[in-house]
């Protein structure tokens, strides 16, 4: 697949950029189409608001104040991936459960991921609680929402990260836009919810930025 990765932008004269903080700096926007940058920035602003609303709902669902998560996301990070999967008509599915990997099995790194996918069916797949892979069919006018690792840790395992993968399309190209709604880069996340005795998992306190960098630098070779 081919993709454009965008992250929260910082100008070159920002102290974080000057000190060489990982993944901080300006994005490398394509020059064409010229409308891409303003459209994606508007899209990003709208999804940040959607993420705020979702987290308010999660707070209320757990009998917490509606503004409980505001400190965690006060200086929240964000990541956006624009991805195109070219068609691979030569792929043959043998054995039956074999897939042409567009993206291998993984979970997302932050709190929530909003996936806006086109109408190419059966490509995005999620693993259910029985360990079976099921297709996340696109529904017009909706997002797929994945739970990420930080929400799993914060909730003490009540909310589980969503294992997912992408099958390679065979007939027509597939496009998707994944927006990753994240806490502050230097924010520490630790288990907060109380769960039933015996069901608490041994989660440790983790800094989001460290977790993100460990994943990014193991998945990509950076020049």
UniProtKB/TrEMBL annotation:
Domain Fe2OG dioxygenase: 76-183
InterPro entries to which the protein is assigned, alphabetical: IPNS-like_FE2OG_OXY, IPNS-like_sf, Iron_ascorbate_oxido_reductase, Oxoglu/Fe-dep_dioxygenase_dom
Pfam families in UniProt: 2OG-FeII_Oxy
MF terms in GO: dioxygenase activity; metal ion binding
PROSITE patterns: FE2OG_OXY (PS51471)
Keyword Repeat: no
Entry annotated with the keyword Flavoprotein: no
Gene3D superfamilies hit by this protein: B-lactam Antibiotic, Isopenicillin N Synthase, Chain
Protein keywords: Dioxygenase, Iron, Metal-binding, Oxidoreductase
Protein family membership: Belongs to the iron/ascorbate-dependent oxidoreductase family.
Name of the protein: 2-oxoglutarate-dependent dioxygenase At3g49630
